[in-house]
Design goal:
homodimer, alpha/beta, 2 domains, two-stranded antiparallel sheet, about 20% strand
Chain lengths: ~220, ~220
DNA sequence: TATTGTGAACCGGTTCACAGCG
DNA sequence: CGCTGTGAACCGGTTCACAATA
């Protein structure tokens, strides 16, 4: 709920949630900040400080209850209610995303694909109905879309983004290796593997066989 | 060359390089830090400070020469010499990566795929020969592999990583939504779209229709 | 006694103002 | 005169030490 949370903290909360999910599936029911920290590759201070932004979830002397903390993190991250998702751009990447399992694990619900290719529009890809970009407005209104995966070619990225903004989609997960500009009321999170690859090249070049790094990533 | 460069700076250098490439293709030959800053969505101070870590590339009074600065950034980022890449895990994602164009644009050369599925090993996917994971050591030695794209299932990620480390691959671009652990002499950069998606959910939930964000991403 | 929760110190990156220079 | 390059101020996130408490 509060404001002023470092975005690095949010990234780590996502990791803690993953760790807790793993621990739970291994039957571990309690864990200390030390334990969580080791699994997440951060310091125990960091774990406690990150959690402290949102409240007190542990028991002094004995640590955290895995199931409880996991649920708190899901709640904090907004992963308890369903998010309705469309995929914009049903090329190779869009199709790979459409087939990704695990998505409904946290209530991300793929409701449709969008493309401009007449041979795709109207068909099903996987079990996703593909609509034309021109029909975006109705689609978004009817399906109350929360999030769009942007997976179009670079040249089409800004135009598709503008269309999403006009249609009222509040969140965009951008897979396109370019900067897209949106008004302040729209949230964009980027997943740019080319940028990651170039950073990697830099670190390799600067410290050949001698760099330590574990980067969070969009 | 120097040490102690903020990794955020490296991320931004990648963006500047992209901007400069765009400007060059538009026939723009000179640009000020103000101009670059606007295109990259950062402040002009930031652009100058980032560049200052590596030297002086501009001309006082008239800005930067696009072509020159672009080449400097390519050199700084290590994008002038070829990088030899293998893809580990030739599932849907691995295949999408194998087909990605633009990769050789900066001299990233896909040399092979790796999988454990007998029906894939020995075949060509796209034009990539697929080897068995057990033959990784020879493959890496023969092909002098610099970078591995890790695109295996979550359960197999750490084991595949260990194999890459043993085989002597110095850099890993990790697409798997999990934390992989490596010794200090190996560099890992992660591209985790599920993490990005969860962060997006958080920002949407915390500031419904009222969040500004432009995230860098792995 | 063990481990959390947190105010304060520390550190590093960003912002800024201006000196340096074409 | 304009724009770059940079030392210094500022700010925010991380680290730490320790008080609180089961």
């Amino acid at each position: 709920m509060p404001k002023g949370i470092p975005s690095a903290t949010v990234s780590r909360l996502v990791i803690y949630l993953r760790v807790l999910t793993d621990l739970e599936s291994e039957g571990v029911s309690r864990a200390s900040s030390d334990h969580l920290a080791a699994e997440a590759n951060v310091s125990a201070f960091q774990v406690r400080k990150d959690l402290a932004y949102f409240g007190s979830f542990g028991t002094r002397g004995s640590g955290y209850t895995v199931a409880t903390l996991k649920n708190e993190l899901r709640r904090i991250l907004g992963l308890t209610r369903p998010w309705r998702v469309i995929i914009v751009g049903m090329g190779r990447l869009g199709q790979a995303l459409a087939a990704y399992p695990q998505l409904d694990q946290y209530d991300f619900k793929l409701v449709a694909g969008v493309d401009v290719d007449a041979s795709k529009v109207g068909s099903l890809i996987g079990d996703l109905p593909v609509h034309h970009l021109d029909d975006l407005h109705e689609l978004v209104a009817e399906q109350t879309v929360d999030i769009a995966f942007l997976a179009v070619p670079v040249d089409a990225a800004q135009a598709a983004t503008d269309a999403l903004v006009r249609a009222g989609v509040p969140g965009i997960l951008n897979f396109v290796p370019t900067v897209v500009t949106v008004p302040a009321h729209v949230t964009v999170e980027s997943v740019d593997f080319l940028a990651g690859l170039k950073r990697l090249a830099y670190f390799l070049q600067v410290a050949p066989h001698d760099g330590e790094r574990e980067a969070a990533a969009g």
